[in-house]
């Protein structure tokens, strides 16, 4: 009886520890410090080299810690393990793109069966097509990716930026506006929207929610864009507005305005 009880206790403790470990892994994957997470998963992977979930945690943590080259190696190892999936290939491609290894990322994505129709797969396919200036393919992939997530703000922002780099400012403006309907607080998208509008000569700020600091930064962005287009007088006005909007915070606009007044616009950096 005693032995049975001991065995039951040991089994129960093992289950509890497994639950605690899973919870800790989840915490490390999301809110933990990226480098602490790397250390945790590296240590745990050494103790449990056959656990693919720990290897995945290590690879994802390396990406979060901005160490994509190391993450690539871990994902490549994962693909040799029992239980590896096509989703692991997609995440390898993601790490390869972050490591600026576009050629291998393309090869990895090409090895993923077409039946894998996930948001991440199409998001990465769009980025690869963009890198090769295959605009029609990129647009198709961006559109598909946007339809596969309930939070498409990021993908619309990336798609808009792609349009902006192609010279399609009007198309970019539309996509940035769409992105802000899903995430109205995303400053990167607000700034991109102002850039897209300014490159069309539309310098007034769009009607979107913004803090005083954001308003100063957006006016600064519009001002620099105006100067770049040759509308120097308008650029000066916008830079002055940026200074008046937040004089304590926005010294950059003051420096840019002084450079213009001194006749040295080439020294202005955006």
UniProtKB/TrEMBL annotation:
Segments annotated as TPR repeats: 153-186
This protein's UniProt keywords: TPR repeat
PROSITE patterns assigned to the protein according to its UniProt record, in alphabetical order: TPR
UniProt name for this protein: Tetratrico peptide repeat group 5 domain-containing protein
This protein's record includes keyword Heme: no
InterPro entries: TPR-like_helical_dom_sf, TPR_rpt
Pfam families, per the entry: TPR_19
Annotated organism of origin: Thioclava indica
Ranges in a coiled coil: none
């Amino acid at each position: 009886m005693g032995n049975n009880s001991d065995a039951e206790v040991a089994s129960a403790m093992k289950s509890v520890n497994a639950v605690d470990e899973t919870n800790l892994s989840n915490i490390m994957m999301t809110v933990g410090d990226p480098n602490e997470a790397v250390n945790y998963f590296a240590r745990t992977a050494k103790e449990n080299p056959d656990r693919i979930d720990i290897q995945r945690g290590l690879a994802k943590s390396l990406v979060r810690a901005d160490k994509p080259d190391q993450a690539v190696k871990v994902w490549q190892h994962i693909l040799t393990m029992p239980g590896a999936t096509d989703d692991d290939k997609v995440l390898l491609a993601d790490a390869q793109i972050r490591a600026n290894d576009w050629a291998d990322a393309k090869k990895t994505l090409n090895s993923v069966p077409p039946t894998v129709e996930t948001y991440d797969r199409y998001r990465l396919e769009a980025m690869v097509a963009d890198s090769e200036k295959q605009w029609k393919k990129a647009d198709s992939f961006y559109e598909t990716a946007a339809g596969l997530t309930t939070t498409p703000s990021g993908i619309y922002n990336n798609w808009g930026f792609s349009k902006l780099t192609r010279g399609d400012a009007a198309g970019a403006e539309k996509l940035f506006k769409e992105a802000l309907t899903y995430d109205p607080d995303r400053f990167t998208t607000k700034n991109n929207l102002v850039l897209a509008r300014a490159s069309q000569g539309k310098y007034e700020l769009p009607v979107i929610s913004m803090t005083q600091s954001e308003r100063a930064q957006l006016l600064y962005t519009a001002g620099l864009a105006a100067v770049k287009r040759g509308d120097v007088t308008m650029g000066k006005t916008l830079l002055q507005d940026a200074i008046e909007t937040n004089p304590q915070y926005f010294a950059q606009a003051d420096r840019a305005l002084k450079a213009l007044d001194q006749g040295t616009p080439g020294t202005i950096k955006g």
